[in-house]
Amino acid sequence: METTSSASNSTRMDQDIVNRIAQEAVAEQRRARRWGIFFKFFFAAYLLLFLIIYLPVDWREAGITGEKHSALVDIEGVISNDALASADYIVTGLRAAFEDSNTAGVILRINSPGGSPVQAAYVNSEIKRLKGLYPDIPLYAVISDVCASGGYYIAAAADEIYANESSIVGSIGVVMSSFGFVDAMEKLGIERRLLHAGENKGFLDPFSPLKQEEVKHINKLLMDVHQQFITVVKEGRGERLKEDENIFSGLIWTGKQSLELGLVDGMGSASYVAREVIGAEDIVDYTKREDFLDIFAKQIGTAVARTLGEKFQLQ
After folding, report:
1. What is the pLDDT of residue 310?
2. What is the extent of the structural domain holding 262?
3. Does residue 307 sit within a domain?
4. Domain ends where: 54, 77, 97?
5. Tens of pLDDT, residues 149-176
6. Which helix (H) or strand (E) holds 20?
7. Secondary structure of the chain in HEC code, one letter for each residue
8. Is 162 inside any structural domain?
9. Most buried pick, 31, 106, 193, 225, via CB within 10 A?
10. Which residues are catalytic?
C-alpha cells in the first residue's frame, strides 16, 4: 500500500515537472515572439525614417510648397553612364522640374569637367524637347567652378548661361589619349601576341606599332564628333557668339573672358538667377540622387556577382 502511494506521488511529481517545463517553454516562446514583433516594428520604423530622410527632395518639398518656385537640377562631376552625373539621372530631375505646375523657371547648375559626348548629347536633346513641351518655362544654366567639354555641350541648350568671373568655361573639343609601349617591350625582351579575327579588330593596340591608316581613321572620327559639338554650340548660342576661331579649339577661359566671347550671358549664382532673372526666390531641388533603394540594389547586385564569381570561379 505504501509502495503504491509512493509510486503515485512520484508520478504526480514527474507530471508537475513536465507541466512546469511545458509552461516555461510556452512562456519563453511568447517572450521570443514579443521581442520578435518589437524588433520587426523597430526595424520598420527605422527603415521608414531612413527613406523619408533620403527620398529625393522633389517628393518632400515640391509637393508641399504649392507656390511658384525656381527648380534646381545639379550636374556634379564627370558626365558618365555609371556616375551620378549620368544622362538618366539628369533627365529624371529635369522632367520632374518641368512637369511641376508651380515651376516658374529651371536652373541647371553645372560643375563638371565634361565626360561622355553621348550622355551630354542625350541631355541636350532632352532639354530641347522639354522646352518645346513647356514653352513658358525658361531654363538657365549656372556655372559654378567648371563647365567644360560635355558640361558646356549641355549648357548650350539653355536659354541663357550665367557664371562666376572665376569659373572655367570652354574646352569645346574632343580628345582621345593612350600610351605606346613598343620600345619598352623591345628593351625588356617582351613579345606581344595579339590574336584577332577582323583586319582592324586590334587597331590602336598600345603594345603594337602605330599605323598611319589607324590614326587617319580615328582623326576622322574625332573630327565628326567635334563638328557635332560645334553645331550644337552655334545653334544654342546663335549670334551671341563672337567671331573667334579659338572658341572651338579646345581652349578654356574664365567666366569673365567667356562673357566677352559670348559663351555666357552674365555673371551670377543660382540664387541670383532665381531671384533676379526668374523672379521666384524660393528654390526647390529636383536633382535625382542615389537613395537608399538605389544603394541597396547596387550592394545586393555586387554581392550576388561576387558570390557567383567565387562559386563558379569566374574571372
Report:
1. 54
2. 55-299
3. no
4. 54
5. 999 999 999 999 999 999 999 999 888 8
6. helix 2-54
7. CHHHHHHHHHHHHHHHHHHHHHHHHHHHHHHHHHHHHHHHHHHHHHHHHHHHHHCCHHHHHHHHHCCCEEEEEEEECCECCCCCCCHHHHHHHHHHHHHCCCEEEEEEEEEECCECHHHHHHHHHHHHHHHHHCCCCCEEEEEEEEEECHHHHHHCCCCEEEECCCCEEECCCCCCCCCCCHHHHHHHCCCCCCCCCCCCCCCCCCCCCCCHHHHHHHHHHHHHHHHHHHHHHHHHHHHHCCCCHHHHCCCEEEHHHHHHHCCCCEECCHHHHHHHHHCCCCEEECCCCCCHHHHHHHHHHHHHHHHHHHHHCCC
8. yes
9. 106
10. 149, 201
Asked, for residue 90, whether it belongs to a domain, the answer is yes
Last residue of a domain, one of 54, 69, 93: 54
Type of residue at 161: I
CATH code, 230: 3.90.226.10
Those residues of the chain that have pLDDT short of 50 are: 56-64, 295, 297, 304, 308, 311-315
The model carries a pTM of 0.72
Q: 301 in the Ramachandran plot: left (φ > 0), alpha (ψ -120 to 50) or beta?
A: alpha
CB 123 within 8 A of CB 91: yes
Residue 170 lies in a domain: yes
Q: Is 175 helix (H, G, I), strand (E, B) or coil?
A: coil
* Domains: count for the chain: 2
Amino acid at 253: W
